[in-house]
Amino acid sequence: MNLKDISTSVPKKDHKGKVSGQLPYISDVKVENMVYGVLYRSPIAYGKIISIQLPNLPEGYEAVGAEHIPGPNYVKIIKEDQPILPMSGSIILVSQFSCSRAKTWISCTVC
Prior knowledge:
Helix content: 10-25%
Organism: Peribacillus frigoritolerans
Order of helices and strands: HHEEEHE
Number of strands: 4
Protein name: Aldehyde oxidase/xanthine dehydrogenase a/b hammerhead domain-containing protein
Shape: flat
InterPro entries: Ald_Oxase/Xan_DH_a/b (IPR000674), Ald_Oxase/Xan_DH_a/b_sf (IPR036856)
Domain Aldehyde oxidase/xanthine dehydrogenase a/b hammerhead: 20-82
């Protein structure tokens, strides 16, 4: 690995517009009937989800799982080996609920 590659700053095309206030950040974008989601990352580096209990969701809200991702369920940090969502079962991405509430629906055990 060439360390020069990771220590070189890469200017992004939208930096000047964002810091000057001419362009919005994604968190500034609002649309009608917008809903929010929460992704809770496990505090356990290597664990196994043993249960997820979801509340009854209001009409129009959904829980999302790995099976809903079009393509690989991985994110590349150093190599593509970090799952974004649990490999099986439902997920704790529930619109209109806070992250702290989502945490109460999950219990994990270390493998």
